[in-house]
Each structure stands twice: as C-alpha cells, then as structure tokens.
Amino acid sequence: MSPAIYAALVGSLFQNPAPMFAGAACAAIAAVMTALKTGNELLWPCAALLILTGAIRSFDMAKYKNRHTELTAGEASRWEVRYQIGAMLYAMALGAWCAIALLMSDDAVAHMICISVTTGYVAAGAGRTYGRPWIFHLQILLTCGPMAAAMALHGDPYYLGMALLTVLYFLGLKMITTSLQQIFVRALIAREREAALAGQFDTALNNMPHGLCMFGADGRLGVMNYRFSEMMRLPTDFVRRNVNAADVVAACVASGTMSPENGKTIISEIENSQASAIVTADPDREYGRALSWTFQPMAGGGTVLLVEDITERRKAEARISHLARFDALTALPNRLSFRDEIERLLAISNSASRLSALLFIDLDQFKQVNDTLGHPCGDRLLCIVADRLRGMLRPDDFVARFGGDEFVVFQQNIQSPEEAAALSRRIVERLSERYEIDRHLVEIGASVGIALTSRGMTADNLLKNADMALYRAKADGRGTFCFFRDEMAETVEARRVLELDLRKAMANEEFELFYQPLVNLKSGRITTCEALLRWNHPSRGTVSPIDIIPVAEDMGLIVDLGRWILRKACMECMKWPEAVSVAVNFSSQQFHQRDILSEVRYALEVSGLPAHRLEIEITESSLLRNTQWTHDALMQLHSAGVRISLDDFGTGYSSLSYLHNFPLQKVKIDRSFLEGIDTDRPLTLLRGVARLSADLGMSVVVEGIETNEQLELISADGTVTEAQGYLFSRPVSATRIHQLLDASHGRHLREGNVKVLPSRSIA
C-alpha cells in the first residue's frame, strides 16, 4: 500500500463528523433515559462517560478538519492511533451501558432503548470506519460482545435468540466493512494510477516540441499544451474559457502570430475533419518563422492539431542546398549547379540560334603554390582568382569552380569566336599577373580551352569539347588558349581505344620482350642485355614502348606491367650464359611503389636468378622524388646484390650530385652526347663525364652507337667500358638474342679476348 493510499484510508475515518456527533448525542440521551427509567445509579457513570468520550471525539474530528496541509504518512499514523483510542473508549462505555441495563434491570423499555441505540450506532459505524475495518471490528467486539453476553445471561429464551441474532448480525457487518474497504482501496489505487498517468500525460504534453490543440466533435477546445500557447503567444488558461476553433484562431491573429488568410485556411482544415498538412509563414518579420500544421481527425469526431516550428529546419535545408550547389571556398557555383545552369542556358541559346562559348580554365603551377606555401595560401589564391574572373565577365556570363584549380565560364550571346578568344586572352593575362598572399609574391599562369555551342549540343558534349581543347592548350606550352577542333575528338577517341586495347593486352599477355645487347669494349663480349617491351597489336602491328609507357602510367597499369617485365626478363636471363646480365628499366611511378623491394626479391626467387645478374635502370626523374626514401631503397637493393644503373644521363637535370649521393654502379650516357662528336667541344664534354664517372668507380656506357667512327672516338681514351647501339644490334626477340649470345661468347672462347671490336655489327 502506498503512503498516499494509507493516508486516504485514515482520512476516511474523519470524513464526516456530523453523523458521529449525532450518534454520540443520541447514545448519551438514551443512557440518561435508561438511568431515569430504571433508577439504576450505575447507569449514570456510563452516561457521563459516553458524553465525555463523544465530546472528545467530536473535538478531534473538528481539529482534523481544520488542518491546512496535506496528510503525510507519519501524520496519518498518529491520527489513526488517536481515532483508535477514542473509538475503543467509546465502544467500552457503550458495551458497559448495555450490559448493566440488561443484567441489572428488568425494564423492557430500558432494554429496548439500549439494544436499539447500540444496534443503530454499530450500523452507522460500518459506513464510517470502512477505511480501517479492523478498528470497527474491535468496536463490534467491545460493544456487541457485552450486549450479546448480557442477553444470553438473562435466561429468557427470547433474549437468548436475540443474542444469537445479534452475533450473526454483527458478523454480517464485519464482512460488509471488509468488502467496503477492498472496494475503497481498489478505487484509491485506480485513482492513483489515473493521477499518475494524467501527470505523465500532462508532463509529456507540455514538454513536447510540437504545439498541440485537441478540438471535440462540437468544435470546442478540449486540450491545449503549453508549447502551443507559447508559440502563438496565448494565455495559459485559454483552454478553460470554453472556446472553439474560431476563437483560438482569432486569438492567434490578434497576437500577431498568424495572418487572417492563414487563419481562414486553418479553420477550413479543422472543419473538413480530414488528415492534411500545411505550412505557413509568420507575418511578424522579426520572428520570420515557418510553421508546419498537421491536422488529424479523431475516431469519435473532432480534430487533433499539431504545429511545429520548422524555421531552423528550413534554414538548414537552405544551407545544405547552398552547400550542395555552391563552392564553400570561393562562393562560386559548383560543378552540379554549373551543369544545371548550362542545360538551361543551352536550351535558350538553341531556341534563339545564338552563339555561346564555354571556356575551361586550368591554373598552371598551382600545385607548386600548395606544395611550397601550404594549402591555406592555395585556398586564398583560389579566392583571388575567383574575384578576378568575376570582375572580367558581363552580367549575362556565368562562372563556376569546376573543382580543384579548374574554373569554367559560359559566355552567352557572342557575335563571333573572336569575342571568346578576346575574353580568353584577357583571362590568361589577368590570371598571370602577380598575387600577394601573406606577404608572399606568387606568380601562376592559366590555360584555357574553348568550345563553341551548336544546335542540339548538350552540356556534357560542350564540357568534353572544352576539356579536350584545354588539354591541347596545356600540351602547346601552357599560358595560352585553344579552340576545340574535330580532330581533337579523333585523337581522344584513338587514345580511348588504345587504353581499351592496352587493358585487353594486359589480360591476354599480348606483350613480348625484346633485348638489345651492351658490349664490353675491351673483351668484345656481350655483358648485358637490356629488356625492351614490344606489343604485337592485332591491327596496329608492333607498338613502340614510347606509345605504351605514357598511356600505362596515366591508366595506373605501369606497376602491373613493370612487374610482368621484371619477372619475364629474370626468367629469360636464366637461359643465358652466366656471365651475361639482364637490365630492366623502371619507370619513376613503378620504382616509388612501397613494395618495390619485395617485388624484386620475388622475381629473383621465382626465376632463380642471382641478384648480381639483375641490373635495374632508373632515370634522373626517379631520383628527384622523395629523395630520402629513394636513397634508402637503392641502398637496400644494392645490399641485396642488385646492380643500379642511371639511364639517359644528361637528358634531365644532370646533377653530378646523383653520382655521389646514390649507390650507382653504372652510368649510361644518353645518345644526345654523340651529336657533333667529331668536333672538340661535344667530345670533350662526353669524355669529361665518362672520366668523372669512372673515377667514382662506375662503369660507363654510351648509348646510340651507330658508326665505327663514333665507336673509335668514345673508346680512344679507355674510360668508356660498354657501348650500345645499332652498330652492334637492334633490339631483337628472345630467340635471336640466344643466337647472338652463343655466337659472341662461343667466338671469343675460341679466339681469346679481343680488345677492339671488328668494324661490323654482330647482329
């Protein structure tokens, strides 16, 4: 039993003091009457005790009623004890009065008075003490027990029967009071649960984020939560005024939170009694709210109205939409917004037969700004570029940031292509002017691709054409502009077909390795064979590596292709004489993959080739990237026994620090050094590089030897150790290189070492 129910049960004892006071007065009068009628002096003390006890209990009742605080469990316990003491005293006085009147008097009137008064008092007590029935049960015992015992002791059979009936009567009252108490307790528990649910409902109702109004079938307002009154600035007691929907709407209009037009719409939706939803704008610009109204009919008639403030949601949606369509950095339209706008503008241009131009702009040297000054400076540079572009355009033109350092401009309603060329020229010049960012002077350039519109052209085609024109402008040296021409599309299509064929060739292993020998100038033997890729295309014929390697690098296939070349070359080298090595070219992209060391080790392991018979050729561009990592990788390869060769020396930066800082065993001097070698200056330069390399302990190879005169000039001072070129052999297949190796090594085994090669090719 909860403390609240216990307090309510105790409170029921003091519920109505008037009947108890009337009963006490009647009992006192009856006691006085019996004392006068019988003349028994013992009845006077009983009458006095009944009067005194009744007065005290009546005073206690009045005191309880005059309380001004809620009854707590502790107070209820004390009041229960007080009531119990008073009830017990009064019951004992009543029982004593009945017993004395019945046993010490033969007056039938006195007997009737005491029996009837006692019976009536007990019956009345059943309706007053049902909250705590055990107190009433004690009262029955103390009151009716002496009366029934006195009637049984009277000796008369009728009195004995009356005693029995009294016992049965009071047993029935006991059961009635017990049942009444159970009913009362169940009612209190139900009321307590309802109060708890009502409290929870009220709490939920007034703390929900939505405003709520509930209108009955008659249109009267039944429920309004605090959120609704707060949102619409209505009095909190508005629901108690017995108003209808029109009154509520009128009050909202009067408070300035609803326009009269919206009010009429809301009343109409309530009267329709159909599920619906509308959105209204707050007429007060200071608030500027957007409210969502939802109308839901109830089963028995009436409508539940929900209102939600969606102002922040609308703002968030607007921000999201802006972020989705505009670049957060430059505030220019982004790729998505640009494409939609281009579709719209193209439709207008096509319908009016007007000429327009799309300019695809790419910033030159922008990556260097990011790499040297950092991305924050790069971001500020992009913002300045965007401002410069805005300042050069007409109101009808449209500019967007396409992504990264790319911008696009749609130039509408031009008279001739010269207008697009003039704008492109201004853009290149303006964007190439110096920038000052965080006290840094920055210089970049710009390249522009131009595509002109034609009837029926889509945005995708226009962008593709402009992109191809931009590609050509960058290929022409950057810092310029270029118009799209049809042959560009043919070139791009040919490149696309080549890429598809290259992927197919990778899957079907349509490649073949050719080998070009390197000849030792002292022994005349072939010491190394350089592996060179060939592609036997079904329709193109033999495709040169010059056409394959750049495409493979752009497609990201160079790593897989290089891995295949390395393993194939190692396995082929195992078929050659032990004194012959194989040289494999590594592209910069392939060399800087993080698992290059494991790839080399795996190729040697599966082929069984000793590490000293593998020579890796790298170019100067490979040494420029990630210098520390490159140095560590070369050191590990060198420690494993693999030979490192610097290929095409003299065609790049040609820094002599490479020869000192990296573990190189061979330098291959590019064929460009042979141009004009019959004059003093080129020959002196070649011999100087060769002598420096030789002094550093490296072998020197000269590429591109085609004549005996060239051979004699480079071998005169003995610093060049090996030569390679068409004078000895062109790149040949694996079968042919076997024949050359057999001929070369077999001949020298028979004839001994030859210091100077014969003046003829060995191929």
Features:
27 helices, alpha/beta, Beta-Lactamase, 763 residues, single chain, elongated, five-stranded antiparallel beta sheet
Mean pLDDT: 83
Biggest beta sheet attributes: 8 strands, mixed, barrel
- How much of the residues is beta strand, in percent? 15-25%
Question: Which radius of gyration do the C-alpha atoms yield?
Answer: 56 Å
Strand order of the largest sheet: 13-14-16-17-18-19-20-21
Distance between the termini: 113 Å
User: Uncertain runs with pLDDT below 50, 5 residues or more?
Assistant: 747-763
**Can you give the helix content as a percent range?**
55-70%
Provide an overview of this structure:
This protein has 763 residues and is α/β, with parallel strands linked by helices. It has four domains: 3-191; 209-314, Beta-Lactamase, CATH 3.30.450.20; 326-484, Reverse transcriptase/Diguanylate cyclase domain (Alpha-Beta Plaits), CATH 3.30.70; 514-663 and 702-711 and 727-751, TIM Barrel (Alpha-Beta Barrel). 57% of the residues lie in helices and 17% in strands. The chain has 27 helices and 21 strands. An eight-stranded mixed β-barrel has the order 13-14-16-17-18-19-20-21, surrounded by five helices. Strands 2-1-5-4-3 form a five-stranded antiparallel β-sheet, with helices on both faces. The longest helix is centred in the N-terminal third of the chain and has 51 residues, at 157-207. Residues 747-763 have low confidence and may be disordered.
